[in-house]
Amino acid sequence: MSNVTAFLSYVIITTFTPGPNNIMAMSNATRYGFKKSIRFNAGVFFGFLILMVLSSFLSVTLYSLIPSIKPVMTFIGASYILWLAWKIYKSKPHAEDESHATNTFTAGILLQFVNVKAIIYCITIVSTFIVPYYDSVFVLSIFSLFLASVSFLSTCSWAVFGFLFQKFLFKNERIVNIIMALLLVYTALSFYLWGGVGMML
Questions:
Q1: 8 Å CB contact between 85 and 20
Q2: At a CB cut-off of 8 Å and minimum separation 6, what does 23 contact?
Q3: Do the beta carbons of residue 92 and residue 54 sit within 8 Å?
Q4: CA triplet 198, 184, 69: central angle to 5 degrees?
């Protein structure tokens, strides 16, 4: 790899900034506690790992397919994220809410496959920083594991923030839910507003 600094900067900035994975991780930790939020974060990890492996081994094919399938991916991804926003907006106070629909392992995995930014990020990082320099199955697997681990650290960091400020967030639960829902709406709209790879995973 010719520029490790550029690679790491891109990975860290893109992964740790606000986006569907991080917003949902924080929301889940705030509502259900850090330990219970780990199942969603684990789902994000495995979903992201699958995306990275697919991107690594099918990068050329996927990259050429993106223009034709992006409108469909964008619609499905935006619809799912808007559904998540609606669930957060309509959620009942913590004590009354027993439905953990957005805080499951499956929800974490599913989010990766409708998150257009994450999909394009995986394909872009593989085709720009990895495949031009490495073609070993072992090395591609290590990169996939590393990038999925960074994603897991990111969602866990946001979950820790949600957990640490739980009391404050509970006191202002309605406002916090509206803000998080609006952030997800903004993320869904950004799929249409910006065509390139965004800073939101």
A1: no
A2: 158, 180, 183, 184, 187
A3: no
A4: 55
Q: Which of 68-72, 144-148, 171-175 has the highest mean pLDDT?
A: 144-148
Read off the tokens for 21: 């994975």
Does residue 21 sit in helix, strand or coil? helix
DSSP codes of every residue in 122-181: HHHHIIIIITTT---HHHHHHHHHHHHHHHHHHHHHHHHHHHHTHHHHHHTHHHHHHHHH
**Separation between Cα atoms, residue 36 and residue 128, nearest integer Å:** 36
Question: pTM to 2 decimals?
Answer: 0.73
- Our CA dihedral for 138, 70, 186, 54, rounded to 10 degrees, sits at -10
Could you report the per-residue pLDDT of 2-48, keeping only the tens digit for each?
678 878 888 888 788 778 898 889 989 988 889 999 999 999 999 99
Q: Report how far residue 201's alpha carbon sits from residue 188's, in angstroms, rounded to the nearest whole number.
A: 12
* Closest residue by Cα to residue 81 from 179, 187, 196, 201: 187
Q: Phi first, then psi: give them for residue 78, nearest 5 degrees.
A: -65, -40
Give the Cβ contact number of residue 111 at 10 Å: 24
Other C-beta atoms lying within 10 Å of the C-beta of residue 71: 10
Q: Which residue has tokens 């600094």? A: 5
Tokens linked to 199: 């800073």
